[in-house]
């Protein structure tokens, strides 16, 4: 691919930084900047400002810098920011407020690339006559994401379409981020000694690398669209054209989940939550695929009450559906069968060979996480998410020590990501729904035979 930086000097800040050194320096600026502000804040406290005033100001500045750096870098760094924007539901309210807006922006915003750069990519991917495919094309992007931006257009047959165009250099930038991530394997290993970090990072790198080929994303979307065609509850837009760095699909209009999270009605929140949960649990059984990028920017509530789903770059292929062992583990935890629960976790690789764990400690750690399945209807709240985060993050607690001793097998990476991410969205939505009935219907192994 041609290097567009020389042709866009007047828009240098919009081009994805490619050099590993430059990207590493930008990433390093985050902790350095936050540390510097902390020193300044200590000085302001000496001059009489209250700790609350100083901490509020520091959090706001840190959030601003987080958005600026991750949004400029895009690539893997921005994907990290998007993941954080889901889990902010577990951050205490007094600390979360300044981060919430900055992180949520990352779900749908980044510096756009210039129009001539966009046209160059379209010509390379769709041919010099790319304009003939469209009756109209908006140069201003409608949305930006981690490795590409979306333009609204009209297809030659009159249908409104979304045109997703990958940023030049996104492939180099993302792979650079992943290499940096893998260099920190020892650090991650120290943080989670029970986890075999290297194969987990390799699996993460392989799955994120797949997202660079929009032809794979288009195939994923076609699979979902075929399965849910005519569905009463889910709409997946059809793909009209695809290339390695461009994909064209039908445009979908609806109320974004981010808007519902901010100001939705109780009815909207509950419906959005129920549709999301059913989509995630039913997809492996129906499509043999699992949408694996759970953040509010990928979901919307349509005017007809259906769930609109977009962005199929991260998808787990599950030819046999969701592993039945997930349902078995849920059921054993619900029934308090701690010895059998530990045996099941060992057999599946959640406990590494040679790791000694007490069965009751493992049960105590996991039992609160299946609490939503103990009731006919469960109310997912930020407070509940915060309680779980505090419980598992308290370094003085047995739960913290137990969690550090558990392993995440690489083949469970995307399933874990979706489960945790979807719960995060449900808590942001403040949704109340019948999760147990959904799990009973769609999760193999949950109902004893």
Automatic annotation (TrEMBL):
UniProt protein name: Predicted unusual protein kinase regulating ubiquinone biosynthesis, AarF/ABC1/UbiB family
Pfam families: ABC1
Species in which this protein is naturally found: Amycolatopsis arida
PANTHER family assigned: COENZYME Q8, PTHR43851
Entry keyword set: ATP-binding, Kinase, Nucleotide-binding, Transferase, Ubiquinone
GO molecular function terms attached to this record: ATP binding; kinase activity
Annotated ranges, domain ABC1 atypical kinase-like: 105-320
Family as reported in the entry's similarity comment: Belongs to the protein kinase superfamily. ADCK protein kinase family.
Matches recorded under InterPro entries: ABC1_dom, ADCK3_dom, Atypical_kinase_ADCK, Kinase-like_dom_sf
